[in-house]
What we know:
The complex is a heterodimer.
Chain A: H1 2-5, H2 32-43, E1 72-73, E2 79-80, E3 82-86, H3 113-125, E4 131-135, H4 142-159, E5 165-169, H5 176-185, E6 188-190, H6 198-204, H7 210-233, E7 246-251, H8 258-272, E8 276-281, H9 300-315, H10 320-323, H11 337-344, E9 351-352, H12 358-362, H13 369-379, H14 386-389, H15 396-399, E10 403-405, E11 408-409, H16 415-430
Parallel strand pairs in A: 3-4, 4-5, 5-6, 7-8, 9-10
Antiparallel strand pairs in A: 1-2, 10-11
Chain B: E1 7-11, H1 15-28, E2 32-36, E3 48-49, H2 54-68, H3 70-81, H4 87-101, H5 112-134, E4 138-139, E5 145-149, H6 156-166, E6 172-176, E7 182-185, E8 191-194, H7 196-203, H8 211-224, H9 233-239
Parallel strand pairs in B: 1-2, 1-3, 5-6
Antiparallel strand pairs in B: 4-5, 6-7, 7-8
Amino acid sequence: MLAARSGVANPFRRRSAGDPGAHPAYTPGVDVERKIEVLAGAAKYDVSCASSGSRRAGEGTGNASVGGICHSWSDDGRCISLLKILFSNHCIYDCAYCANRASNPVPRASFTVDEVVRLTMEFYRRNYIEGLFLSSGVVRSPDHTMEELVRVVERLRVDERFHGYIHLKAIPGASPDLVRRAGLAVDRLSVNIELPSEVSLRRLAPEKSKDDILRPMASIAGGIVESRAERRRHRSAPAYAPAGQSTQLIVGASPEDDRRILDLAHGLYRKFGLKRVYYSAYVPVNPDPLLPPPEGPPDILREHRLYQADWLVRLYGFAPAEIVDDARPNLDRAVDPKTAWALRHPERFPVEVNRADRDTLLRVPGIGFKSAARILATRRFAALRAEDLAPLGIVLRRAHAFLTCGGRRVLPPPPRAVAVDDRQPELFAAGCCP
Amino acid sequence: MGATVPQRFLHDGSTDSMLAAIARAIASGRPAAVAPAAEGSLFAEDGEPVPADPAAADALLGRIGRDLGGDWVRRILRLLCSEEDGAEDVAFRALALAFARGAGVMGFHANPDVRRANAIDRRVAGEVHRLKGLLRFRRLASGRLWGPVEPRHNVVAMVAPHFGRRLGAERWLIHDAVRGFGAAGEPGGAVRPCDAAAVEAELRGGLDASETDYQGLWRTYFDAIAIRTRSNPRAQRRAMPARYWACLVERPGGPGGAPRPASK
């Protein structure tokens, strides 16, 4: 409505530099809206939207906040931090699980480099986003596609002097030189491992090889290590993917059990120093005899349990074998993995909350990093009483059976207090996606 | 023997008056409380009014910085930005405790004063963080970016420096639509407060004509990025409470699900 009152004759006129109200005008082409619809829709199955782990600033526009910032939450409850789009959803590959497989009759579109750059800048200036997440179908060849992606990020960094967060997906099979150029321009560089085993990869994504995926992963890991060492010697040395690399795999499209998946993730963390492995519950988008029949909604509970187990391995010091083993190759769906572990180890409990050290406290279901830190801080002033526990953020609904306080058993909380007060700190303890 | 009635120090709502009242309460060495002066109060027994006193306020902040550290200065300022009832008294009690027992006393989570102070502090700091993401700028015809917000707490001054660093090449205005004032940023990163008249003057020219196009593109993106088979409105509302939706550009909750943004 105000647009009509603003008196601007040509809504898309490019202002001259001398215009007092000058700002980089962008003329969205008539089909940009349709491209967003197609290419954001095609990117939505990529899970990562993290914008953390990088501190970037400089003259021009934008900076990267080390803790990351969420800008919105979509109707599926997932955080929106980055403009997550494919450069193109044309693809020469025919991976069975992918909505953009060559044989799928879906609407196709490709952005131009200029369109992605302008959209990113204009969305960023309006504070819609923290930066850009750019991936693509494989157009013509891996190198051709990677070249286009690199042009986008280099234009943003050099021409636009953009210092916001950029997460780029390296195209499997792209040349190391292009991957290296990308690493020097972006905050996070990642390659999707797609499936939990080589057998499944051969079966469902026959054009992609294990080597095509692991080689760039190793090259990125090497670049990060090298860059960190160099920057320790010379602070002005260029940063290479300072927010590290991550990967994603689809859960439920192939028959691997949770033990296989967690072992793979653990191996990736150790070998390539990955920041995160993302798990994506298989969403049936293509009917294919190689895939499970499209029955019911995606298995979000399994995905959730894998994230919980991943958290325990990555941050809480659990070994994968403590969570899943030959006798129990899949995670318990009824209880979270920490509770399941505690129930299998009654000899370790109850833990006296006034004496236990940090590592012991962190193994108690319902106690996270924040509540453990609060317990230790409070003990410096006074012994804890049972009534102090819930306000410290301990989820008593889960923790009470595994704790004593002053030598006495801890009583479960009244039902109302659980739902409202006690879950929140645990959610924060688990951390959000940035 | 009856309990001692705490002496009440009454502030006028300004930060300088609150800090001066806290300084007086601490200096009194007696059981004390800090509270807002009731409008039209005529009775001396309500408490002792403490006018805004920048020198006393600065002296207290200086003492906090010296004795307890910069984190405490920021914590007290956050508590005083809270619009929750009794936040200024919570700030006073936490501060008195810290002067008596040291800066680390906020780790004494079993203490009710510490708990209340930490809880309010967390809510204010949480809103500051949230607004860094949820604030939406609109391009005005003048070229300035305009970001209306309706925060629960008086946090615009704490949000503004973030955008000063981030949008150093832009002219922008964060507009607290609840309290009427704002903060403006200029190229180079300078940030200045903006009163209601200055905000009104900035808005006179209306929105840039291209603004509705970008808003449309953003809404298209917002709708396209959600996986329909994983719809989870509960998680969406928990992360992004509906009270912030009015100033957004996107429409959470599906088509027609959100209240419309405050029109300008």
